[in-house]
Amino acid sequence: MKTALITGITGQDGLYLSEFLHSRGYRVFGLVRGQNNPKAEALARTHPYVTVLHGNLLDISSLVRAVAVAAPDEVYNLGAISYVAYSWDNALMTSDVTGRGVLNMLEAIRLYEEHAEKRVRFYQASSSEMFGKVQSVPQHEGTLLWPRSPYGVAKTFGHYITINYRESYGMHASSGILFNHESPRRGPEFVTRKVTRAVAEISLGLRSSIALGNLDAQRDWGFAGDYVEAMWLMLQQDVADDYVIATGVTHSIRDLLDVAFQEIGIADWHPYVHQDPALIRPAEVDQLIGDASKARRQLGWQPRVSFEELIRMMVRSDLDAHVSAQEAV
Ligand code: GDR
Predict the structure, then answer these.
(1) What's the pLDDT tens digit per position in 162-213?
(2) 203 lines ligand 1 (CB under 6 A)
(3) One MF term in GO for this entry (predicted)?
């Protein structure tokens, strides 16, 4: 039986990954931060097979302890401050958690490997935000990184320090450059879920409009459930490496609105959407489109859920959540 330790286990990707690893017979440990964390309580109810360890990416001693207790074959570092817009207002905290946190985890593993007769495989959740001011289209593993937000800069540090530990210490450390990936579990601060939730509420007569920022940004959106499989596949390779994970198809926020509103039978969304200048970011990443041909070739990975299926799935899930909540009253 293999053992995995996941940081960020209460997030969207942590939940999908823990289910995926559990279905493959893994023993799963999850690092959870903070006292009386309500997400940890929910995790204990919905994913009882996960052993919760308390720790914090900023506190290396807690990471050393977590690695010693779990004695993992694989560590997936998904923990981060992950909301790009928030990172301008919290740049130092973001660089600590999202950037230096990666180094803390790598150090904890390195210390463990010095004393244990075991090698640990490490996955770093890198991000397409690192491409920022994109230098070529589509973006692949060799595209120049030009991050445009404190979050992107912190992720770039995490990416390069992962590569550096692989090259310096021969660690089996891989970096997955994941493009946007969504699901019904996506946090409501991210644009897909913000839209699908609002659309469900508009359909049920609970609200009349939605405020958004830049409608012209283009993203390569895939399904998170597909993307966690790619993380696992990276750690099953003999040699650690870096991989872009993406669908290869890009859509604007306007396309997102088209699909989401169509799902509730509204063809023209304009009367329901207004732009709020406060939601425009100080620097934007205009167009992301990933070239995942290396992952397809070397990992045999490819996405299964299309953009349209994904957005429709999210709208339906948000509608169902309201209906079940009303039935429960
Ligand atoms: P992103 O995701 O920044 O790409 O990072 P997000 O969904 O927040 O933004 C996508 C694009 O939508 C535009 N946008 C809005 N975004 C939000 N959140 N709210 C709005 O009201 C709104 N209006 C327009 C944004 O300007 C942007 O262009 C996500 C995160 O999950 C990161 O952690 C991850 O690393 C990357 O994806 C890959």
Answers:
(1) 999 999 999 999 999 999 999 999 999 999 999 999 999 999 999 999 999 9
(2) no
(3) GDP-mannose 4,6-dehydratase activity
Whole-number pLDDT of residue 285 = 94
Pair (207, 121) in one structural domain: no
Ligand 1 atom index nearest CA of 215: 24
- Interaxial angle between packed helices 307-328 and 191-203, expressed in degrees from 0 to 180 and rounded to the nearest 10: 50
Ligand 1 atom 8, closest CA: 190
Mean pLDDT of 70-76: 98
For ligand 1, the distance from its centroid to the CA atom of residue 214, given in whole angstroms, is: 10
- Residues 229, 255 share a domain: no
Instruction: Indicate whether 232 and 256 sit together in one domain.
Output: no
Nearest CA residue ID for atom 6, ligand 1? 190
316 and 168 share a domain? no
Summarised one tens digit per residue, pLDDT across range 77-87 is 999 999 999 99
For residue 13, the CA-to-ligand 1 centroid distance in Å is: 16
Domain of 316 in residue numbering reads as: 191-218+250-287+306-328
Q: Are 116 and 127 in contact (CB under 8 A)?
A: no
Q: How far is the CA of 73 from the centre of ligand 1 (A)?
A: 33
Determine the atom of ligand 1 nearest the C-alpha atom of 155.
35
Local confidence band at 34 (pLDDT 50, 70, 90 cut-offs): confident
Catalytic positions are 156
Asked if the model's pLDDT at residue 246 lies above 80, the reply is yes
User: Same domain for 230 and 279?
Assistant: no
| 194 Cβ closer than 6 Å to some ligand 1 atom | yes
Residues 108 and 154 grouped into a single domain = yes
* Interior/surface letters 158-175, b for 16+ CB within 10 angstroms, e for the rest: bbbbbbebbeeeebbbbb
Say how many Å lie between the CA of residue 257 and the centre of ligand 1. Answer: 14
**Do 164 and 114 contact (CB within 8 A), yes or no?**
no
- Whole-prediction pTM: 0.97
The ligand 1 atom nearest the CA atom of 149? 3
Average pLDDT, the chain: 97
- Is 117 in the same domain as 265? no
Same domain, 19 and 67: yes
CATH number at residue 269: 3.90.25.10
Report the distance separating Cα 49 and Cα 89, nearest Å. 37
Burial of 115 (0-12, 13-18, 19+ CB in 10 A): exposed
Lowest mean pLDDT among 31-40, 143-152, 267-276: 31-40
**Protein residue whose Cα sits closest to atom 32 of ligand 1:** 82
